[in-house]
């Protein structure tokens, strides 16, 4: 079964590449163009919050505070403990992925596999009972990457990412198309990762009681890879919280963070569910039905997800949302600052501490 790529959108061009390269683009823009300080290698011991500020305490005892703390600190988020008031441990999803990214050198040298690297960017998938294997060539065929999702009940109390072993991957492929093993055999073993998929029940909230600490990305809503939306939704979060902070201003941080949650919460929950439905569509497929209708297991590409413009949406609803959340939390509002969204009063921008 072949699934056509969606027609190109000139206003939203598609570029395929490594996530690390994308991280580098953003990192260098923030560091060099915006001149925002970035501190690496800082291990956080605790988050704190008072009526007037929020902050973090490092393992060495140093402390930093700001108007707001954005906890983008992943599935094992410590910011989540402050927001929820308890430790919310991740759970095994019952699945894991082997994943790898490597150059096409050995693929090109093999007549059986070189065709994948000679036709630009390609995307191929193999699906079976409780297993799926996705293989792609990227950057005009120069790089290769694959993910193999399979059943796994390993303990994830201490870690969920380990060096992978090709021999273990081959066991999953027992009885499969030999081409899958042939592709995987080109993978340098030091490029292979065994990644346990964890999940959390949807959080009741992403914002602390005081409204000065907010969760973003995986700390608020981890995604399964079958949603193909984890990074995208984190970026939508980032655009939205920026607009909320700008519009609410330094004097009304709680209205900004609560508006962010109000704007994003329902959409994110719906997108999260697509990871489960796609995984189950592939892993629990009725193969007789699939034989009759191969299109039934196509990768979903829903317009309500892919055509959404988070910036345009946030700009359209932010004034109304700030007014709504401010009225809901009126006892906590500062008497010296009006939250009316139509007033032409320029508020100073807040000092935000972002943790990733």
UniProtKB/TrEMBL annotation:
Location of region: Disordered: 324-356
Report the leader peptide range. Answer: none
Checking InterPro entries in the record gives: FAD-bd, FAD-dep_Monooxygenase_BioMet, FAD/NAD-bd_sf
Instruction: State if Iron is listed as a keyword.
Output: no
Pfam families on file: FAD_binding_3
| Domain of life, source organism | Eukaryota
Q: Which UniProt keywords apply?
A: FAD, Flavoprotein, Monooxygenase, Oxidoreductase
GO MF term set: FAD binding; monooxygenase activity
Residue ranges annotated for the FAD-binding domain, each copy included: 63-252
What family, per the record?
Belongs to the paxM FAD-dependent monooxygenase family.
The protein here is known as FAD-binding domain-containing protein
